[in-house]
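Suppose you are handed a protein chain with no further information: no name, no annotation, nothing but its sequence. What can you learn? This example shows the usual starting point.
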Amino acid sequence: MSELSNTNTNTNPNRSQYDLVIIGAGAAGLMAATSASQRALKVLLLEKNRKLGVKILMSGGTRCNITHNCPAREIVRAFGSQGNFLYSALAALPPETVIEKIEGQGVATKIESTGKIFPVSNRAIDVRDALVTMAREAGAEICNQSSVDAVTRAGELFHISVAGQQIECGSVLITTGGKSYPGCGTTGDGYVWAESFGHSIQRPVPALVPILSRCQWANDLKGITIEHTGVEIWSAAAAETTPAKKKPRKPKPLARANGSFLFTHFGFSGPTALDVSRAVALSDNARALQLQCDFLPDFKSTKLLNHLSQRRAQYGKQSVGNLLNDLFPKRLAEGLLSAAGAALNAPNAELSNEGVERICHQIKQNRFEINGTLGFEKAEVTAGGVSLREVDSSTMQSKIVDGLYFAGEILDLDGPIGGFNFQSAFSTGWLAGQSVPGLKP
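A reasonable first move is to predict its three-dimensional structure. Written in structure tokens, the prediction is:
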């Protein structure tokens, strides 16, 4: 079935004037189109790509992590200092309602052990099609292959220029996303229009993106996954200086996460590496940072030290190279031992107490030199965007220009891996669609 017949889209608007024009048919735009159209508003959804929801189709390894199985307050907490902005949006459309709407389109969902919610089919296209069908059935007009050239305002109306055609509307909702996965069409177009209306843009940087390593022995471990790892990003010069009369402040990591960790041929990936990558991307000198791993976060150092000492005594005739085989894959075990300066071929009985402590340190506080990230091309989301200070969180309307709305990733909102960012897009899009007024008769 072709893309156009599958989604029933047009390439040209049917009217010249609308209550609302939405630019960008991703998660936020599609949900907003349904929300506003159900209120009997005349809604036009424009998408520059041939396919709708391209990023949805790519997400979660083409499975689409729809949202997270948790209360709305935990979604707020996951976004940290940005989270309070989402209270009204999540009240309007909480995670359980997102699932109800998608399942209402015949797409069954499942909760995985991590709390991530996916379609049972493991097909992102099923989620995308459900969102398109909802918007279409609500009455939204959807036009793909419709690249917007300009967004301006004259009097009470906005003017949208699309391939030489002028479209008028009472309100505009920009849901063009950020700059992550630019191959999906997310090339920062919306930032230009936002700035033209006086909005400030917090510097966009890639987030949820793999991290590059300068440590060859780590890169040689490509393919190894450690399911439970504590990961932190540190400045190489983490010690802080304070006045002599004050106690020194204890250094803190720039970011931390716990979960699955993957070694790659270029560095680090997996949920934990992605979750801390924002701190790397924000740094002006990523080479001055280090990624620290605790490969046994459930083991206190004293417990681990005792365990290793007992194995040294019990298997004194065996080589040191086998000391960690009960804890880690062989390649990682040997890498940690070598990094601790241990002679792999020597018997365990010759390993000193200091040597055991060094091995313990490598397991609990292993620091890798890093080189930055893979950039926007491989980033799942964008950190930065339209300043939240300039957007009314109770409506998603601009505080600078009446009738101008923002939702989704174009906002300075980015959360951890696990469906949180899709939930933010769905909720802010829905709230915007509920807030937009109709044109005055």
